[in-house]
From TrEMBL, chains A, B:
This is AcrR family transcriptional regulator. InterPro entries: Homeodomain-like_sf, HTH_TetR. GO terms for molecular function: DNA binding. The keyword Endoplasmic reticulum does not apply. SUPFAM superfamilies: Homeodomain-like. It comes from the Bacteria. Residues 21-81 form the HTH tetR-type domain. Keywords: DNA-binding. Transmembrane segments: none annotated. Residues 44-63 bind DNA. Gene3D superfamilies: Tetracycline Repressor, domain 2.
Length: 228, 228
DNA sequence: CTTACATGAAAGTAATACTATCAACGGCAA
DNA sequence: TTGCCGTTGATAGTATTACTTTCATGTAAG
């Protein structure tokens, strides 16, 4: 039935793999919609259970708490994005061209994609934009990091940073540059929607504006003005 | 007694101005320390009251909830930073030089400063780094924005963007560039401390590395390579 | 057939996020 | 001095959150 590719995330994010059961898959699909609707702070397993016609206890068998569920969702997204990037750039020889393709994917990653179904991609992307940084901006970062909960994000940054290194081997900050660009892609979209004075996008071409802004940022950093 | 400058923030952030009473000032000072220690999620007014030898009810007379308190603290920080920037750049004619000074302030803003006392600046800066984006990454952004709760941040970005515009009037994304740089200054510091594979800083010169990275980013964007 | 296991149902606990009431104190005004 | 106001403290109370526990039931696999 489901021919969609299987995205794997760190198993320490869940107690039981939600991909393996019908209830688990519904949990994921419905939680994406509910978190998108009411926000992470208002989201509870009780509300999710009610909406799914299931029970709190059942859901707690999949995830320790909602924070881990968030970690799962965003990790899943990073892994999916990484797959998208590999897929769309695997036979592009020029690093500069590959980098531009990646930037395009980063800035319009919320469009629905036929390979993965059952999931509201647009809602998931809104969750990534609004909530993903809360996965690591906690007092427990170091333990969570030790447990490998952020590795999908690290892999993504490392993959893209490698393209930067190929293009500009002398550039000293490839990881910082890419983590900045990835975060900015989300933040600028959020600002465009909610705090427009923090950005400079035209309302009817937000994504293109963000793309152009980030392209200038990225390639500007890699080809600096001659030190006079 | 207190000769320190008075930082004003949007009065809708609080129910009663905490600067005006002894209890209010203790509230601020102690909450900075406690949030820094245990993180925003674990922080409650009950714990703060216990630590201050006061009561929950008294503290709720100053702030509606801990989210507003966070908003107050980070707004205070942005206002303070803006003052620092004005103070240190007010008689520097060259926009490029002013921009570099601002970048320096942004990347070492957590050093203690003699003009403001009573407050643990280093702890406040750690709070800004870890928690500030949670002030606006909520489901209620739009209402909070309507109420003007983010105006200090907007003012700061607008101020710096004006310098960018002076330096490069043709550049199309001054606000996006500055909001990106301001956020990156914090994020890269957080990454350096907790998720070092997302950055490229040497452990003994983190701030300098971040400064150099951001300088390249900022001026690279403003002086793009000639379109061949 | 029975066993293992996933789920549902129900209840319970500790903590959180508040709100309400009232008494005590201190300052100031008549 | 008396009387009032406003701030704080003390106590209690409520609804919700974030879980955990126990047990019954249905179902799928051996």
């Amino acid at each position: 039935m489901s021919t969609s590719l299987r995205i794997e995330v760190n198993c320490r994010l869940y107690l039981r793999d939600p991909q393996e059961t019908e209830l688990g898959r519904r949990l994921i699909a419905e939680s994406v919609r509910l978190i998108d609707e009411i926000g992470l702070e208002q989201f509870t397993f009780r509300k999710l259970a009610q909406r799914m016609q299931s029970t709190e206890a059942s859901l707690y068998r999949y995830f320790e708490n909602k924070h881990r569920l968030l970690g799962y969702l965003v990790s899943w997204y990073w892994a999916w994005l990484r797959f998208q990037i590999r897929f769309h750039t695997h036979n592009v020889p020029a690093a500069a061209r590959r980098l531009r393709l990646i930037l395009e994917i980063l800035t319009r990653a919320h469009r629905d994609d036929p390979t993965t179904t059952e999931l509201d991609e647009a809602a998931l992307y809104r969750i990534v934009v609004r909530e993903s940084s809360k996965a690591y901006l906690t007092h427990e970062v170091d333990e969570d990091n030790q447990a490998g909960l952020f590795r999908e994000y690290k892999y993504l940054v490392a993959d893209i940073a490698r393209v930067v290194q190929e293009l500009s081997p002398a550039y000293a900050y490839p990881h910082a540059l890419i983590s900045t660009v990835v975060e900015a892609a989300q933040k600028q979209l959020f600002f465009a929607r909610h705090l427009p004075s923090l950005t400079d996008t035209s309302p009817d071409a937000t994504e293109q504006c963000i793309y152009c802004f980030l392209e200038g940022l990225l390639f500007g950093a890699l080809h600096p003005p001659e030190p006079a």
